[in-house]
Each structure stands twice: as structure tokens, then as C-alpha cells.
Amino acid sequence: MFNPRMVVFLIPAERTRRGLGIGAQVALETVATGGAGRRVEGSTVRPGRIPEGCRGASDPETNPLVPLSARDPQSETPSSKSIPIRIVPIAG
Questions:
Q1: How many Å from the N-terminal Cα to the C-terminal Cα in the chain?
Q2: What is the DSSP string of 4-32?
Q3: Quick one: 8 exposed, middle or buried, by C-beta within 10 A (0-12, 13-18, 19+)?
Q4: What is the CB neighbour count within 10 angstroms for residue 36?
Q5: What is the pLDDT of residue 74?
């Protein structure tokens, strides 16, 4: 991936369902154990070839979304590849 790296990849059906055009600015949010919110601002919507219901984004830009308690039980590796998120349009 090349600059800018603050992007979120969505398939056309999801962009349509959410009313988001290519280039729309969004925030990504997740909720950690205990209800603590985590948010990354300023991602740009880009077209992506990914499975239905999935979103793609880069790390380390989205690392703040990963709750420290979200770890694989066997390896203790942070579960960065599977974090449920909300996509929040940013007015502008």
C-alpha cells in the first residue's frame, strides 16, 4: 500500500448500503472489554476486493482499535486481524 495509508477498503455493496462514496472520510470505532471506546479518525473510503462483511485497513494506523485484551488464547498474539468495527461518516 502506498500513501495515503489512512484508508478503509469496502466492497461496492457495502459502500452503497452505507451511502458512502469513494473518497468519503470516516472514523473507525470499536468497543473494548468493559465498554472502553477506541476510535481512529480520518480514514478515506477506497474500493476493495474483500469478502462480504469485511473491511480492510492498514496497521500500524489502525492499531489503536485493537483492545489490549483481544488476544489469541494459544499464542497470546493480539487479534488484529479480526476486530469488529463501526464505520462512522465524518461530516464535511
A1: 26
A2: ---EEEE-HHHHHHHT--TT-EEEEEEE-
A3: buried
A4: 11
A5: 84
Q: Which residues pair with 30 in a beta bridge?
A: 38
Instruction: Please state, in angstroms and as integers, the Cα–Cα distance from residue 33 to each residue in 41, 62, 68, following that order.
Output: 21, 18, 9
Beta strand pairing call for 86-89 and 25-31: antiparallel
Name the amino acid, one letter, at 19: G
- CA–CA gap between residue 47 and residue 63 (Å, rounded): 21
Parts of the chain with a pLDDT under 50: none
Q: Residue 2 has which C-alpha cell?
A: 502506498
Q: What is the pLDDT of residues 22-35, one digit of tens each?
A: 999 999 998 766 67
Distance of alpha carbon 36 from alpha carbon 32, whole angstroms? 5
* Full-model pTM: 0.82
- Per-residue DSSP letter, 65: G
Residue 6, strand partner residues: none
